[in-house]
Amino acid sequence: xxxxxxxxxxxxxxxxxxxxxxxxxxxxxxxxxxxxxxxxxxxxxxxxxxxxxxxxxxxxxxxxxxxxxxxxxxxxxxxxxxxxxxxxxxxxxxxxxxxxxxxxxxxxxxxxxxxxxxxxxxxxxxxxxxxxxxxxxxxxxxxxxxxxxxxxxxxxxxxxxxxxxxxxxxxxxxxxxxxxxxxxxxxxxxxxxxxxxxxxxxxxxxxxxxxxxxxxxxxxxxxx
Length: 224
Ligand code: SF4
Ligand code: SF4
Fold this sequence. Notes:
The chain is α/β, with parallel strands linked by helices. Helix content is 34%, strand content 14%. The chain has helices at 9-16, 30-34, 39-51, 68-75, 79-84, 94-103, 146-149, 176-187, 209-212, 215-221, and strands at 3-6, 21-27, 55-62, 87-91, 108-110, 112-116.
């Protein structure tokens, strides 16, 4: 089970900025089990946004937001609400936010931080998508994770070696920061590219003691 924690509402509002119309997508997988998501949390978040004068144009729950094909299928049923939205708020791990961002042409913002995947990268195979950094920055990187797409896991890129969209570390690999630049340009959010991310606090990658003493964690950690 991917372990997540809720971002402070103030941080979520800061990420949404002037975007008023918000569509909320919630994952009914790990976050529901971990009690950082699920229908009740999504409804509460919608109320908190409305109290701050945001217009919540729709909400939906998807069983496993880390399954990109399923995300595309289910969101295709919400096209009118998505077209009306300025931004999408995603209540899931970093893999789910990236799957959503790959499927919609709206800025996608994480409502959660991902702390641990316990070795599970969700149901979007072929690549590691989330490095469980504990401080999800997908909000300002166009929904592309710099920790996993950049060969050096740079939080501020690109490095000086990027050449014509390829990475200096592996010539056949796209530069993660080039991908982020292109996505931000397509979203009209290039100002986000200039934001300087703070140095990572690696302590945030540790699962808090209070979470490690829950029944859910005991089930997760049990050795058979
Ligand atoms: S920024 Fe990347 S590594 Fe960090 S929580 Fe988000 S998806 Fe995961
Ligand atoms: S070329 Fe791009 S992906 Fe490669 S290390 Fe530099 S910034 Fe990261």
